Automatic annotation (TrEMBL):
<feature type="compositionally biased region" description="Acidic residues">
    <location>
        <begin position="57"/>
        <end position="67"/>
    </location>
</feature>
<feature type="domain" description="Interferon-related developmental regulator C-terminal">
    <location>
        <begin position="380"/>
        <end position="410"/>
    </location>
</feature>
<dbReference type="InterPro" id="IPR011989">
    <property type="entry name" value="ARM-like"/>
</dbReference>
<dbReference type="InterPro" id="IPR039777">
    <property type="entry name" value="IFRD"/>
</dbReference>
<feature type="compositionally biased region" description="Basic residues">
    <location>
        <begin position="1"/>
        <end position="11"/>
    </location>
</feature>
<feature type="compositionally biased region" description="Polar residues">
    <location>
        <begin position="34"/>
        <end position="48"/>
    </location>
</feature>
<feature type="domain" description="Interferon-related developmental regulator N-terminal">
    <location>
        <begin position="36"/>
        <end position="335"/>
    </location>
</feature>
<dbReference type="InterPro" id="IPR006921">
    <property type="entry name" value="Interferon-rel_develop_reg_C"/>
</dbReference>
<protein>
    <submittedName>
        <fullName>Interferon-related developmental regulator 2</fullName>
    </submittedName>
</protein>
<comment type="similarity">
    <text>Belongs to the IFRD family.</text>
</comment>
<dbReference type="Pfam" id="PF04836">
    <property type="entry name" value="IFRD_C"/>
</dbReference>
<dbReference type="InterPro" id="IPR016024">
    <property type="entry name" value="ARM-type_fold"/>
</dbReference>
<dbReference type="Pfam" id="PF05004">
    <property type="entry name" value="IFRD"/>
</dbReference>
<dbReference type="InterPro" id="IPR007701">
    <property type="entry name" value="Interferon-rel_develop_reg_N"/>
</dbReference>
<feature type="region of interest" description="Disordered">
    <location>
        <begin position="1"/>
        <end position="67"/>
    </location>
</feature>
Length: 463
């Protein structure tokens, strides 16, 4: 079981809303198919599970055994002499760790996996080091931030730190180490002030190189440095959400004026990271002091307005669009404390991203877990604890039997839709099973099969 995360700001903020209603997610078979595709060797691909054909269901026990066998082979391949094989094994583990919850399996093998990752971080090339750092972050998430994750973090933190500070190391590897350091500290050692302060200071030493000098001039960045600065700043801002009020006041006074100057950076992604961090810091400042005001707020708002309406033709069109969208949100929050709420749906539940703090936390997990973030929100106790979702919801067989995901195959452009009734117990009356259907003009006509039928709510039978 994960340790209590009472200090997590993601779930403790008053007014946070979550729901138990949303779209039906992908099935377990869909989530587990085609991962670990490079386990056996660098040149051969296999799939963990083969989905049944003709409506046949894969036996869960057999599927679990096959998955574990593939995972064991991947772990063995981490010790292979071939760098290509090791890299393929790391990629397979990354896919598996991000798409499934494997706590029981990994608890028994965490030391072996940690030793292999340590070897890759110390002796591997840049690509292997980057992959190993990412897999280690996923391992900490899989171990649910418990004592096992904390123990592994204490062992690998010095290695991540050394690689992050090594100017001769691959930029990609250093970026991955920055993200891993922030995430692993957040889930594994957040309750220990010393680890938190050390990690904050280390990440600060990276992105503060982009701060203006005494004359107020921004330094000329070296190739790749803006990406590294962005990764370090985002990891740092994740950890800032854990800081006590006394520490926050110091950080606000130190960093807010300097970050405002960094809005003039030539790199669009770094500008966006800076803008989002400024919004987060202002939000945290307002949380601890209702009278909090940004120094030179007029100058900041003018700069944000300029970025929110930037039409410079020398910037790429997509960059301009992305920048304008983000900075409009930042500006609205600074001026009116107005945040654009986002609803994340997974399974039959949803989580509301209603603050810059929760957005930073969610984005950090999404960056590591990628498309698997919804699966972990649904089943991983650590993420459910952080976002205040409670224990995983177990649906009964009648609910699982509804083939809701099949409805998604109907073209969204269709003008006819059908409402499907949920069979969730009445004690969970706020759960519904949505689909992209509303009522037919004629209940006896199958929209999917394009023929007459007596099937009303279950028209898939005739397809």
């Amino acid at each position: 079981m994960p340790r209590s995360k009472k200090g997590k700001r993601g779930s403790g903020k008053p007014g946070v809303r979550n729901g138990v209603k949303g779209e039906s997610g992908a099935s377990d078979d869909e989530l587990t198919s085609d991962i670990l595709s490079h386990c056996s060797s660098a040149s051969e691909t296999t799939s963990v599970l083969e989905e049944g054909t003709g409506g046949e269901q894969v036996d869960e026990q057999t599927a679990q055994e096959e998955t574990e066998d593939k995972l064991k082979q991947c772990i063995d391949n981490l010790m292979d002499k071939s760098a290509k094989t090791r890299l393929a094994a790391l990629e397979s583990l990354r896919q598996a760790f991000s798409s499934r919850v494997l706590y029981d399996f990994l608890t028994e093998r965490r030391l072996t996996v940690s030793d292999c990752l340590e070897r890759s971080l110390k002796k591997g090339g840049g690509e292997e080091q980057a992959a190993a750092a990412t897999v280690f972050a996923l391992l900490c998430i899989q171990l649910e931030g418990g004592d096992e994750a904390e123990e592994g973090f204490k062992v690998l933190r010095p290695i991540l730190t050394a690689l992050l500070m090594d100017n001769s190391a691959s930029i990609t590897a250093r970026q991955s180490c920055a993200r891993a350091l922030g995430m692993c500290c957040y889930v594994s050692a957040a309750e220990e002030g010393e680890d938190l302060i050390k990690s904050l200071a280390l990440l600060e030493s990276i992105f503060m190189t982009s701060y203006p000098n005494r004359e107020g001039v921004l330094p000329t960045p070296k190739p790749g440095n803006p990406g590294l600065n962005s990764a370090a700043l985002q990891a740092w801002s994740l950890l800032v959400t854990l800081c006590p009020a006394s520490r926050l006041k110091v950080l606000l006074d130190l960093h807010l004026p300097k970050l405002q100057a960094c809005l003039q950076s030539n790199d669009v992604n770094y500008r966006i990271a800076v803008g989002e961090t400024i919004a987060l810091l202002v939000e945290l400042g307002r949380d601890i002091d209702e009278e909090f005001e940004v120094e030179d707020s007029e100058g900041l708002c003018e700069c944000l307005k300029s970025l929110a309406t930037d039409g410079n033709k020398h910037r790429a069109k997509n960059d301009r669009r992305k920048q304008r969208s983000i900075f409009r949100e930042v500006l609205h929050y600074i001026e009116n404390e107005d945040f654009t709420e986002e609803k994340i749906r997974f399974g039959v539940e949803s989580v509301y991203i209603d603050s810059w703090m929760r957005r930073r936390i969610y984005d950090a997990f999404k960056e590591i877990l990628e498309s698997g973030v919804r699966h972990h929100l649904q089943f991983n106790p650590l993420l459910r604890d952080i976002f205040g979702l409670g224990p995983p919801i177990i649906l009964d067989a009648t609910v699982k039997g509804n083939k809701i995901t099949r409805f998604e195959k109907v073209p969204a452009s269709s003008s006819s839709t059908l409402t499907v009734q949920s069979s969730v117990p009445e004690t969970q009356d706020d759960i519904y099973l949505p689909s992209r259907f509303s009522q037919w003009n004629s209940p006896t006509f199958c929209l999917i099969g394009q023929k007459e039928t007596n099937h009303v709510a279950s028209c898939l039978i005739c397809c």
